[in-house]
Amino acid sequence: MSSGPAAYLTRRETFSACHRLHSKHLSSEQNKEIYGKCNNFHGHGHNYTVEVTLKGPIHPETGMVMNINDLKVYMDNAIMKPMDHKNLDKDVPYFSDVVSTTENVAVFVWKNLVKELPNPDILFEVKIYETEKNIIAYRGE
Ligand SMILES: Nc1nc2c(c(=O)[nH]1)N=C([C@H](O)[C@H](O)COP(=O)(O)OP(=O)(O)OP(=O)(O)O)CN2
Ligand SMILES: [Zn+2]
Which domain of life is it from (predicted)? Predict the structure, then answer.
């Protein structure tokens, strides 16, 4: 049976987390210079919005790219459980040696989703709004 037309399915979730921009590979002066107020020892918080987009064929029998009820579970495991109400730098082992910029948070979400999705080939984009003004998109490249 040939596959149906392709569609883009996006689901949005929000989570809250705190972090500090600090690189172990830079001196204290370099950290202050590069990250400025975001290097403050006490850290700061964000209400992040994450949009996950799948691109895949619409299944001819179900009419779906993926059942959104299933996608909810995958996003819960990949995003909410590891990061919601967490200190990214202290509570998420991935960020013990990776700076918790939004770029790296997007890569972290992508890697987690690849492990969750039954067919990771349909993962098209992870887009993260760190603030209303600061937005990062990652497509696995
Ligand atoms: N390339 C990146 N640059 C910066 C990141 C990042 O993740 N990637 N992150 C930060 C800070 O963590 C923080 O997000 C900055 O927040 P803030 O300046 O408060 O946010 P806004 O730009 O929305 O607010 P303004 O009022 O316009 O300052 C910094 N850089
Ligand atoms: Zn920040």
Answer: Eukaryota
